[in-house]
Amino acid sequence: MLTTNDLMTIDPEIVTRDTPLREIVTAMNRANIRQVLVVEDKKLVGIVTDRDIRLAVNSPLTTEEPLERLELLNGYTAVDCMTANPRTVSPETPIHKVAQLLSVYKFGALPVVENGELVGIITVTDLLNQMALLPESK
After folding, report:
1. How far apart are CA 112 and CA 117, in angstroms?
2. Model's pTM, two decimal places?
3. Where are the domains of the chain?
4. Residues 63, 71 contacting (CB under 8 angstroms)
5. Residue 119 CA from chain centroid, whole number
6. Kind of pairing, strands 14-15 and 109-114?
7. pLDDT of residue 95
């Protein structure tokens, strides 16, 4: 039986609560990912997704001026838009359970925590890549 440990990324992109959103966007673009994990002293405290950033920057209170949007990215940090205490899985969680959680909650990823410390992340893409390796049914 496949578990989270078999498919997870063991060195996920991490930031702190004080990381400016502009740095987060840069890291996400550089790594071609849609979420970063917010960590303090190896403990997961939150997750910032591309959706969180879009919602923060596309506020109806802002104009369509690109410079104003850049200023928003400079003026806010991870703690301003992160989801605190996100749902997590362990390395031993069966993949079918991970898929169920991702589907039910419409998440793009789940942080992987063991003994209270962040050890990885598992994404929808990880599951799709695994499915792509399965032989075609006859």
Report:
1. 8
2. 0.87
3. 4-133
4. no
5. 13
6. unpaired
7. 97
78 and 48 in contact (C-beta within 8 Å)? yes
Locate 36 and state its tokens. 């970063």
Q: Domain 4-133 adopts which CATH fold?
A: CBS-domain (3.10.580)
Q: DSSP letter at 9?
A: B
Per residue in 61-109, pLDDT (tens digit) is 555 566 666 677 788 899 999 999 999 999 999 999 999 999 999 999 9
DSSP state of 89: B
Got the DSSP string for 46-84? EEEEHHHHHHHHT-TTS-S-HHHHHHHHHH-BHHHH-EE
* Alpha-carbon torsion (50, 51, 53, 58), positive or negative: positive
